[in-house]
Amino acid sequence: MPELAFMLLLVVALMAFSNWRFGFALCVLMALAQDPMRKMTPDQPIYFVVFVGAVFGAAWLGALMANVPMLPRRIAGWRKHVGLPFTLFVVLAIIQAVHSLARFGNPMLTGIGMLSYFSPIPAIVLAYQFAVRRGMPGITRWMRFYVVLASFALISVYVEYSGGDSQILGEVGGGVLISGQGAYYKGNSGIFRGAEIAAWHAATAACFSFMLLWGRRFSFAKILLAIALIVFFLGLGILTGRRKMIIEIAIFMSAYVSLVVWFRHRAGKLAILFVIFGVLSYLGTVGMMAPSQGEVGTGPVLVNRTPDDSFDKYSHRAQTVFADVPERLDEMGIQPVGWAVDQFGWQGAGLGVGSQGTSHFGVDASGAAEGGLGKLTVELGLPGVALVLWLLIKFALYIWSLLAPLSRTSPKHANLAFGLIAFMLANLAAFSVATQAYADIFILLTLGWALGFLLALPVLAKAEKERMQRALEEEADGANPAGRAFGMASAIARGPNFGSGRMLPPR
What separation in angstroms does the CA of 111 have from each of 106, 351, 383? Predict the structure, then answer.
């Protein structure tokens, strides 16, 4: 099996290198294929997790060979708004990578950390360059491709819950036990290597589905389809047992609608009401799935995943998600910072130390690494936490400055921008209390792509507006004889590219 897996990787990587624009779709294919291949390989080697990174790296090299600008400063407004904090962040991350390597002497540990911090950077740039070349249709086509493939992959979560027995189903290794209703049980991961990863894909597919359906001309059939898709992904996500997925969807929906109401209708109070309405609607929906008071054993019991076990334990797990938020914020957000400083000092321990699975390298940061602030404190130190917060604030101001003119210029581009922002906010909230899934390379790449697409939308909207203005001017010129004569003279002066529909390169 390893030989076949590496042959497949080589073929896919060569395809991505030969045409970097296909790299985004090929990364989706590899992300969904690498975990089943790993499960079918003896000892389930860990190197499969970097397959999707290799495909993306091939696409990035292909773009570089095609003379595509691959530096963040080529993104419109980057240097002005985030150039300084971003540069300082990169410098600090490099210093902490050297710190980790010197302190623990383990290149694998340092490499895992560097992937976590640096892989989104080329993803942002490549996504921006893809978007400015393929436009909004290219972005939405990729999102549809992802939703379709993720839907089929996530069905395997239900197959496992229903008692399906296959080598490619279930978590890699022993899996993680989840407590609930006085017992312990395992969430369902389907073909994914862990329930955390499956839950993230369910939440992301739900968010993307809503973005794709929003902003078009509504009909009763489209409304039903949107509701059905969200319920479908929500149900599969609950079967994973990971409550973070429900927080993501709830925050996404409320943030999305709030942004639309604020920028499109200039109704601040109504936007706040929509946030509250989204949270209350979610609580009411989950409250209807009341768990039955079945008999439970007194000790830790591993509950079998069969239809007879019922959906109750999974809905009960989901039902406590918001009730647990204050406790989770304290345990995962505040306490880990103090623990990290006590254990490793204010300067941190270096990149990779807070990543999942570092116990295999003789490093124990379990007291801080699950929450986002704790992980950042362990790996970047207190100065790094302050620098990351500064960078996030600068990014927020940068993006906020783009939204008002974008909503005036092009509502359809603004709608997609609102969705991408809500998607990233939902992931930021999830990362702050649970970091396990955010060591996955595909997840990091997807977040980088979302930001790159977002930063390209104002450029796309401006270009589309200019094309429409030129078309109107040419139509007006052609409506009178003098205009037609002037148009013919202009066409001769412009040369053979005139009228070809291609944008001439700037001089």
Answer: 9, 8, 22
**Rounded to an integer, what distance in angstroms lies between the CA atom of residue 23 and that of residue 15?**
8
CA angle 498, 140, 17 (to 5 degrees): 75
Q: For the chain, what is the total number of helices (H) and then of strands (E)?
A: 17, 3
Residue 394, token pair as written in the block = 């600068």
Integer Rg of the chain from CA: 25
128: exposed, middle or buried (C-beta count within 10 Å: 0-12, 13-18, 19+)? Answer: buried
Greatest alpha-carbon pair distance for the chain in Å reads 92
Per-residue pLDDT of the chain (507 residues; tens, 9 = 90+): 678 888 999 999 999 999 999 999 999 999 999 999 999 988 888 888 899 999 999 999 999 999 999 889 889 889 999 999 999 999 999 999 998 888 878 888 888 888 888 889 999 999 999 999 999 999 999 999 999 999 999 999 999 888 878 888 888 876 555 555 555 556 788 899 888 899 999 999 999 998 888 755 556 677 788 788 888 888 888 888 776 777 788 888 888 888 888 887 665 555 666 556 555 544 444 443 334 333 333 333 344 444 445 555 555 555 555 555 555 555 555 677 777 777 777 787 788 777 765 555 555 555 555 667 778 888 888 888 899 999 999 999 999 888 888 888 888 888 899 999 999 988 887 787 777 788 889 999 999 999 999 999 999 988 888 787 777 777 776 665 555 554 544 444 444 443 333 333 333
> pTM of this prediction?
0.82
